[in-house]
Amino acid sequence: MNYSKFLICCFIASLSFGCKPTETVAVEKNADSENTVFSDYTIAFGSCDNQKLENKLWKPILEHNPDVWIWGGDNVYADTDNMDLLRKNYRTQSQTEGYMTLKASAKIFGTWDDHDYGLNDGGEEFSAKSESQIEMLDFLEVDENDIRRKRAGVYHAELINLPKGTLNIIVLDTRYFRSGLTEAKGSKKRYQPNTYGEGTVLGTAQWDWLSKELTTSKADFNIIVSSIQFLSSEHGFETWGNFPHEVDKLKSLIVESNAKGVILLSGDRHISEFSKIEIEGLDYPLIDFTSSGLTHAYRGFSGEPNPYRVEKVVSVESFGLLKFDFDSKTVSMEMRGENNVLQQKILQKY
User: Fold this and answer.
1) What are phi and psi of 93, to 5 degrees?
2) What InterPro entries would the database entry show (predicted)?
3) Pairing of strands 319-325, 342-349
4) Closest CA to 265 of 108, 72, 8
5) Taking the chain (350 residues) in consecutive chunks of 10 residues, what is each chunk's mean pLDDT?
6) At what angle do helices 204-216 and 244-257 cross, to 10 degrees?
7) Which of 58, 74, 151, 165 is deepest in the core (most CB within 10 A)?
8) Positions of E strands within the chain
9) Considering only CA atoms, which of 81, 68, 83, 69 is closest in space to residue 138?
10) Is 55 exposed, middle or buried (0-12, 13-18, 19+ CB in 10 A)?
């Protein structure tokens, strides 16, 4: 192509794409993926989907033809102990055209957060949690013989066997058993960390279950879904960091279990970001991929501390993608928005 034609092409491209947000791509140096085609398996996930608002992301989600869709919490906004109302809201969400199309082609996983659980920032104290669990499982179309129908909490794990490897999807419940939070005093923050050793995020039964899942897992990748952030803990909202001993407990479990390729997925915050930490004894970095929200975002975001953040916060509507290559043991993690715009990306080799 000669120089004049090149300038014309650039001008046409600027007309086509000039209104789209700027792409921010962070590529890990240890991921030699120049010639990698991430086609072995695709997981899409997201959180914070208000059934009263238009979700403009179903179309770009469907364009990636994901094998799995994971609801990360706040899958509807209800904040109620009225099960008729909650059921109505779930029905509205279930009948959304884009989601109906997705359900026909992808396997559905999901956890809840506070607004679909039924109580803002709620935990074990919510009086209608067992009734709310039934509605949540109905929304996910969980089989009547599934163990989640017989026990407290919506936590769940499933091993996915593929021609080139295996994936273990581990969905946590950070609501049903979670202890009370400590309100922050003399600060603009909502909460402060509990005294070390006091309270729990998962509760005894779920911790025992998770320990067994990770310790016995032979999967190439272990995807842990938490509705609230795990690594980012200084913002003063809900986070695992409000229970610092529980953070240490999960870190230790991941190391001691020798589980391969552990990746954390989270939501809740109405912002999207990558957080990453190196943990002694773990031969890969632990990444917490936060994707939120699907129908609304914290567009007025002006900053908050997070020493583990990779690149910058995305504060417009977005969804998350994980694309796997089992030959190179590499995962492409992408934040994408309206019109399928790539907002940020990490390539990580495991």
Assistant:
1) -65, -40
2) Metallo-depent_PP-like, PhoD-like_MPP, PhoD-like_sf
3) unpaired
4) 72
5) 39 34 40 65 98 98 98 98 98 98 98 98 98 98 98 98 98 98 93 98 98 98 98 98 98 98 98 98 98 98 97 98 97 98 97
6) 30
7) 74
8) 41-46, 68-71, 107-110, 156-162, 165-171, 182-183, 191-192, 221-225, 262-266, 272-277, 286-290, 309-314, 319-325, 330-336, 342-349
9) 83
10) buried
Which of these, 277, 280, 274, 273, lies nearest to 297 by C-alpha position? 273
Helix, strand or coil, per DSSP, at residue 343 = strand
pTM of the predicted model, to two decimals?
0.91
**Pair 298, 271: CB distance under 8 Å:** yes
What is the four-CA torsion angle of 66, 227, 253, 189, rounded to 10 degrees?
A: 140
Tokens 């994408």, residue located:
336
Provide the CA 90 distance to its chain's centre, in angstroms.
20
Residue 39 is predicted with a pLDDT of 86
Quickly list DSSP for 258-276.
T-SSEEEEE--SSSEEEEE
* Among the listed residues 338, 269, 252, the one whose alpha carbon sits nearest the alpha carbon of residue 57: 338
Domains and CATH numbers, the chain: 38-349 (3.60.21.70)
d(CA 70, CA 47): 9
Count how many Cα atoms sit within 13 Å of the Cα of residue 117 in the half-sphere of its side chain: 26
The structure tokens listed for 68 are 């799995």
What gap in Å lies between CA 290 and CA 314, rounded to an integer?
A: 10
Name the helix (H) or strand (E) containing 102: helix 97-103
10 Å CB burial of residue 218 (0-12, 13-18, 19+) is exposed
**Residue among 331, 283, 285, 335 nearest 308 (CA):** 285
CB burial of 74-109 (b: ≥16 within 10 Å; e: otherwise) equals bbbbbbbeeeeebeebbeebbebebbeebeeebeeb
State the pLDDT at residue 186. Answer: 84
pLDDT at res. 35: 57
230 backbone dihedrals φ, ψ, rounded to 5° = -100, -50
Query: What is the DSSP pairing of strand 262-266 with strand 272-277?
Result: unpaired
